[in-house]
């Protein structure tokens, strides 16, 4: 591959203004392309910076690596990074929660239309959408995981019907991906940082917002192809700066299969969020008897995915690992942590970020450290005013384990403009 293919032309259409350029810092990488970082006023871990540098040294990376203000260390590749690659894809940069993202919709309800006690609303949502996971020590034989359906509802069946034929075709080549839970996971939340929230915007309008991805089947697809890429790299990519950065080149044995698999998982994730939104709206209707409309404003966006796009006149694969597409006029969602504000934004189409923005606040510490550092009393205080779980199992999701969302938003004013500011009043977590 010629070195010139890695550079963006200096006279490319859509070249950013001087003002836009000043919003990021250029980090030069020896033996690689630069890393452009929208991190002014936001801390960046040394280990995350090393991950970014390793990615920048890959011969397939085009122009530069873009680091969003929520950037932090990730398994395989840096969370909060945008990587454009020339005729190749890095499976670990996409990760195993393929298609993970957000969906939100505005309703015609207002704050005063909600019941005084929000506990019933939270309970109805929890009954409507399976969430969390049964601990391994509590599982018996082939018993159902509580985070999946015993009998999928009609909405989940209808969504799965749109996907099953293509999935069966994929499984002919990769039978280990076939699992009965794949259908039962459609329309379910999962655990970790996945959530369903009822929020209010600054004008008092009620919103529903949720965060999830492709569940177990996306994990299986991602894990399988990451392992295949590592094995392939042992033969063909021996000078990789990190084994997790193994990649498939266009035309290679597994490239087409990965593109097909990851594309399918991204469709699963989008439909999964839509089914959960339907179920959550139905739960809201059970509690609020007043008729209301939804999807007055609506967004459904991935933030862990790969897509073929054109940037600086070059056709490339763009992988957003913890980043959202922010083309000019495009709506996106940037959630805060549990207890913090969230933002509905409109993209400005800044070419230097590959038309992207952050996907959230970004963790400031590991889950393990958060559990050691904070107490249940801290969790209760930090989520005051929010109807949510307040127990030791969710201490790792405490707001203080995340970066300051206001600082994150201030660092990317040249990437997005804020349309709505939301504050959660109900939060359901796995």
UniProtKB/TrEMBL annotation:
Compositionally biased residues, Basic and acidic residues: 126-148
Q: In which organism is this protein found?
A: Polaromonas naphthalenivorans (strain CJ2)
Active-site residue numbers: 359 (gmp-histidine intermediate)
- Which reactions are catalysed by this chain? a 3'-end 3'-phospho-ribonucleotide-RNA + a 5'-end dephospho-ribonucleoside-RNA + GTP = a ribonucleotidyl-ribonucleotide-RNA + GMP + diphosphate
Annotated positions binding Mn(2+) 1: 97, 194
Q: Which free-text remark accompanies the cofactor?
A: Binds 2 manganese ions per subunit.
The UniProt record lists the keyword Cell cycle: no
Q: Which residues cross the membrane?
A: none
| Positions that bind GMP | 193-197, 303-304, 335-338, 342, 359-362, 429
Q: What name goes with this protein? A: 3'-phosphate/5'-hydroxy nucleic acid ligase
Query: Any idea which UniProt keywords this protein has?
Result: GTP-binding, Ligase, Manganese, Metal-binding, Nucleotide-binding, RNA repair
Give the EC number: 6.5.1.8
Residues that bind Mn(2+) 2, according to the entry? 211, 303
């Amino acid at each position: 591959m010629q070195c010139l293919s890695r550079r963006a032309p200096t006279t490319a259409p859509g070249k950013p203004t001087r003002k836009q350029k000043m919003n990021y810092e250029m980090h030069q990488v020896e033996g690689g392309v630069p890393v452009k970082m929208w991190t002014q006023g936001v801390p960046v871990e040394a280990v995350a910076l090393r991950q970014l540098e390793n990615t920048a040294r890959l011969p397939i990376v085009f122009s530069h690596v873009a680091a969003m203000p929520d950037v932090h260390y990730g398994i395989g590749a840096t969370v909060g990074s945008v990587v454009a690659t020339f005729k190749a894809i890095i499976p670990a940069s996409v990760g195993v929660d393929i298609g993970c993202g957000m969906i939100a919709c505005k309703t015609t309800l207002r704050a005063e239309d909600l019941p005084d006690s929000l506990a019933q609303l939270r309970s109805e949502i929890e009954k409507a959408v399976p969430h969390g996971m049964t601990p391994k020590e509590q599982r018996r034989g082939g018993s159902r995981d509580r985070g999946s359906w015993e009998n999928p509802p009609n909405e989940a069946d209808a969504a799965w019907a749109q996907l099953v034929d293509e999935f069966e075709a994929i499984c002919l080549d990769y039978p280990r991906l076939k699992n009965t839970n794949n259908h039962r996971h459609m329309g379910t939340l999962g655990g970790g940082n996945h959530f369903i929230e009822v929020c209010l915007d600054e004008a008092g309008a009620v919103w529903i917002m949720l965060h999830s991805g492709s569940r177990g089947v996306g994990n299986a697809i991602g894990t399988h192809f990451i392992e295949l890429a590592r094995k392939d790299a042992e033969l063909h990519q021996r000078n990789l700066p990190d084994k997790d950065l193994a990649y498939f080149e266009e035309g290679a044995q597994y490239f087409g299969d990965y593109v097909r698999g990851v594309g399918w998982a991204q469709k699963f994730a989008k439909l999964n969020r839509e089914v959960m939104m339907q179920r959550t709206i139905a739960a809201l209707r059970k509690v609020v008897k007043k008729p209301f409309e939804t999807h007055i404003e609506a967004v459904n966006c991935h933030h862990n995915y790969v897509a073929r796009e054109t940037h600086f006149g070059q056709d490339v694969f763009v992988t957003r690992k913890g980043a959202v597409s922010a083309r000019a006029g495009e709506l996106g969602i940037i959630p805060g942590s549990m207890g913090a504000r969230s933002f509905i934004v409109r993209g400005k189409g800044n070419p230097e970020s590959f038309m992207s923005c952050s996907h959230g606040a970004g963790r400031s510490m590991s889950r393990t450290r958060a559990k050691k550092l904070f107490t249940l009393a801290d969790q209760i205080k930090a989520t005051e005013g929010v109807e949510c779980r307040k127990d030791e199992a969710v201490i790792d999701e405490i707001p203080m384990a995340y970066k300051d969302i206001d600082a994150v938003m201030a660092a990317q004013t040249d990437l997005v403009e804020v349309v709505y500011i939301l504050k959660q009043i109900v939060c359901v977590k796995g």
